[in-house]
Amino acid sequence: MKNIFKLITFVKPYWKKSLLSLALLTVVVLMDLAIPRLVQRIIDQGIALQDLQLVVQTFLLMLAISGLNTLFAIGNNNYSVQVGESVARDLRETLFVKIQSFSYGNLDRLKTGQLMVRLTSDASAIQRLVQVSLRIGTRAPMLMLGSLILMFYTDQRLALAMLPLLLVTSAILVFFIVKMGPLFLSMQRRLDRLNVVLQENIAGARLVKAFVRDEFENERFGAANDDFTNYHIRVTQFMSTMGPALSICVNIGIVAVIWAGGLQSIRGDVSTGQIVAFVNYLQTTLGPLMIMANLANVWAAAMASAERVNEVLETVPEVRDTPGADPVQTTDGLQVVFENVGFHYNGSGDEMVLKRLALTAEPGETVAILGATGAGKSTLVNLIPRFYDVTEGRILVNGVDIRSIRQDSLLSRIGIVPQETVLFSGTIRENISYGKPGASDADVVAAAKAAQAHDFILALPNGYDTHVAQRGVNLSGGQKQRIAIARALLTCPSILILDDSTSSVDVETETKIQDALEDWMRGRTIFIVAQRISTVLKADKIVVLEKGCIAAMGKHRELLHSSPIYQEIYASQLGAGVNGGD
Question: For residue 39, what are the domain limits?
Answer without folding.
Answer: 2-313
